[in-house]
Design brief:
The chain is mainly alpha-helical and 268 residues long. The chain has a single domain, classed as Rhodopsin 7-helix transmembrane proteins (Rhopdopsin 7-helix transmembrane proteins). The chain has 10 helices and 3 strands, in the order βααβααααβαααα. The chain has a 3-stranded mixed β-sheet with strand order 2-1-3. Helix 2 runs antiparallel to helix 3. It is elongated and about 65 Å long. Bound molecules: 2-acetamido-2-deoxy-beta-D-glucopyranose. 2-acetamido-2-deoxy-beta-D-glucopyranose binds next to helix 2 and helix 5. The site of 2-acetamido-2-deoxy-beta-D-glucopyranose (NAG) has 8 residues, from helix 2 and helix 5.
Amino acid sequence: MVFIFNINERALNKNAHFTFTLLSLSQTIKNIFIILITRIDPVLQTPMYIFLNNFSLLEICYVTVTIPRMLMNLLTQKGNISLVACAAQMCFVLMFGGSECLFLTAMAYDLYVAICNPLPYPLVMNHKVYVQLAIAAWVVAVPAIIGQTCQICSLLFCGSYIIYHLFCDFPPILKLACGDTFLNEITVYVVTMVFIMVPYLLTIVSYGKIIANILKISSASGKAKAFYTCSSHLIVVVLFYGTAIITHLQPKTNQSEGNGKVISLFYM
Ligand SMILES: *[C@@H]1O[C@H](CO)[C@@H](O)[C@H](O)[C@H]1NC(C)=O
């Protein structure tokens, strides 16, 4: 069975593909730099930078499973993808994306401990703890995502095989299934809730506490420095979770064709 990405219908698609590719290439270069710099500089061997390192690696993985295929589709003007390839892409995209969520949570927690409990920080965030956090962030969502992918791929597809998205993901594929997919939608919803909303809430709580703590700092320069550190994190968190929530947690009937692409661009 073969799905087809709609690549040449509207100008938006072409522009979206090119913008996506360019952004991803620059992202990848940036990520390689981050990994190299944090590896080389001994000052940057703190949990925050180790998490950032892993996050960069995940972004490289994410780009690797989405961009080459997209670029090939665009260059050959064919958007065919087999069910197996689509399933593999879906699985990797969600595994890497899910791990990114969890690493953002780990970073928020690290910042929370550093700002709110500075004295016991080395005790709380010791080597064993952050290695365990990193391993958990990589593997914890994997079984659920593999299970979910298998379940979606065992659905019946008939009628339209056209994917209105830049890559295979649960919502655009689920949309193509025929028959009653209510149960699948519910399980996808639950899985997404657990792996997006829970980290999201934990992240928000951490930042809430961090901000409350910053407001208590009496020196103006200390306050500014803490806000500066925190605001860049917060922007990433808002954009990242915002797009993930819009893509995965809106009901199937509300998703207009092509919207997913614009949202994916924002995500990048
Ligand atoms: C990711 O995290 C692990 C465990 O903390 C660490 O050993 C590794 O250097 C990190 N970075 C990458 C790129 O894997």
